[in-house]
């Protein structure tokens, strides 16, 4: 807890038991723990360092990094962007994914170009066909065998499934979900 009205210069120090016997002394392993503003539920810092002293290694100070707009190394904007961008099933796999929401989806003829589809629908399986090597289909990064048999879906990724189709011949290649 901190009674300080603000955290100056990108960091804050709270007294440890070496300075105030009633103060909390954080331990190694507490890094990343929150600093709450007294009397609120507001997290204003993250523990980043402890200051030790004396023969017994008594904690004298608990150092925290600011999380607001005055944070060092622009932590505030990094956290804001991280929280405002919901990762999608295809994030990091492909871009420009075509979203579908129905559990029962038919891609139709995929053409010869690469394509990407994503969904958060509650899928149980699917199938695919007319894929000729080197053309392939992967779901959440796992390669699928497209011979018309039912697919075993991998675990969900970011709340759903990403169907990534590589470019190739056989414009009539397809996949279905259910």
What does this structure look like?
- Helices cover 6% and strands 31% of the residues.
- With 178 residues, it is mostly beta strands.
- It folds into two domains: 8-84, Thrombin, subunit H, CATH 2.40.10; 98-177.
- Strand 3 (43-53) and strand 4 form a beta hairpin.
Spans of 5+ residues with little confidence (pLDDT < 50)? 1-8
- Helical residue percent band: under 10%
- What's the pLDDT, averaged over the residues? 83
Span from first to last CA?
51 Å
Give the total of domains.
Answer: 2
The best one-word shape is elongated
Order of helices and strands: EEEEHEEEEEEEE
Number of helical regions? 1
SS strand fraction = 25-35%
Give the radius of gyration. Answer: 26 Å
Strand order across the largest sheet: 5-7-11-9-10
Write the layout of secondary structure elements.
Elements: E1 11-15, E2 34-36, E3 43-53, E4 58-66, H1 75-84, E5 98-99, E6 105-106, E7 115-119, E8 126-129, E9 137-139, E10 142-144, E11 161-165, E12 174-177
Parallel strand pairs: 5-7
Antiparallel strand pairs: 1-4, 2-3, 3-4, 6-12, 7-11, 8-12, 9-10, 9-11
Keywords:
mainly beta; 178 residues; single chain; 2 domains
What is the gist of this entry?
This protein has 178 residues and is mainly beta. It is 6% helix and 31% strand.
């Amino acid at each position: 807890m901190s009674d300080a009205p603000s955290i100056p210069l990108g960091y804050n120090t709270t007294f440890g038991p070496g300075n105030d016997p009633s103060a909390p002394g954080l331990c190694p392993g507490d890094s990343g723990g929150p600093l709450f503003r007294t009397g609120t539920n507001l997290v204003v810092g993250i523990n980043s360092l402890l200051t030790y002293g004396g023969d017994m290694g008594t904690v004298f100070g608990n150092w925290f990094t600011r999380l607001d707009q005055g944070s060092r190394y622009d932590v505030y904007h990094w956290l804001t962007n991280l929280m405002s961008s919901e990762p999608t099933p295809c994030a990091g796999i492909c871009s420009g994914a075509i979203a579908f929401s129905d559990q029962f989806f038919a891609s139709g003829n995929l053409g010869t170009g690469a394509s990407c589809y994503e969904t958060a629908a509650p899928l149980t399986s699917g199938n695919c066909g007319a894929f000729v090597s080197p053309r392939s289909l992967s779901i959440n990064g796992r390669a699928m065998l497209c011979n018309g048999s039912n697919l075993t879906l991998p675990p969900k990724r970011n709340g759903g499934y990403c169907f990534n189709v590589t470019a190739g011949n056989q414009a009539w290649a397809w996949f279905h979900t259910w």
